[in-house]
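## tool: complex_structure
## caller: assistant
## args:
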Amino acid sequence: MKTDRLISRHLDGEISEKESALLEREMKNDPALVQQARQWQRYGELLRESDVPGMNDPDRAWMDVRRKIRGLEQRDDVKIPLFRPRLAWAGAAAMLLIAVSVLFMRRSADDALPVAVGAGTEVEWVESDLPGAVSMVYADDETGLTVIWVVVDEGDDGHAG
Amino acid sequence: MDDLQLIERARNGEEDAFGELVKKYHQRVYAVIYGFVQNPADANDLTQQSWVKAWQKLDSFRGGSQFFTWLYRIAVFTAMDHARKRKRQKETVIEEGRSVTTDPTHDVPPSVRSNPAKNVQNAEIKERFSEALNTLSEEHRMALVLREVEGLSYDEIAKVMKCRKGTVMSRIHYARKSIQDQMRDLL
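## result:
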């Protein structure tokens, strides 16, 4: 099996000198290997022997290719005025729809928040029983929530409420 | 004018520059495709398709590899794609239970057909060889064709077929063994 592969690589000129010497020794002692190499060589000849029948003349081939290319380009040219404005209008309409939807959803969310926490509620003062606790109140602009921090004097732990 | 200059001009829309490339490489592209499909009509058609694809993809040629390696890749995949589609069509026809009629002279080159008495044995060998070749997978067949018809090295074949060098070696070896098994009584 290994010699098989060596023969194949030898025929393809993909063998090192060391491997070549090894193969030569083995082939001297085994006529079947020589026969195999000849057969495989013959397959290559058969592939090349076909003499590429029926090939179009390169000049004619180029004329055919050019005709095909021009045909494709003409089709593209025809497509452009029909297709692109439609695509542009569709895209613009989709963008407008998305923008309106986003605006509407954000406004709805903004309107809903004060209702959830109680519209018009204002925190003016917070009292805690925890010894040494200090409270902080601030309105979070991003969420619209009122946040109350109760910081205990002992250590760095903070408790938010 | 070298290939890169022609490509640059072709990219700028100069058809004639592309025409020069077509005329220069047409025979090599055809030879590879013919070696693979073994049929002049298909080979001409697929060669034309390959050139049209090359024109359309010319902007993607980066110049890192040689032009013919890039071009072969297009030709190889066009031919392999065609073979796969044809195989699927044949399978469908067979599955549907219809009889498949084939022209026995279809794959025999005209030079052999013109003088049958003299070439009987040769024609039989070639026909059997062609049949054996067609039983191989597209990958095995193409690797063998690129090696034997075009004389590409394993490295070059690996680049064209986008696989490893070891894979190329295995495919060619397997292809030879498989053909040998099918032609044992003739050669």
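## assistant note: Chain A has three domains: 2-49, 58-110, 116-151. Residues 98 and 104 of chain A are 10 Å apart (CA to CA). Handing back to user.
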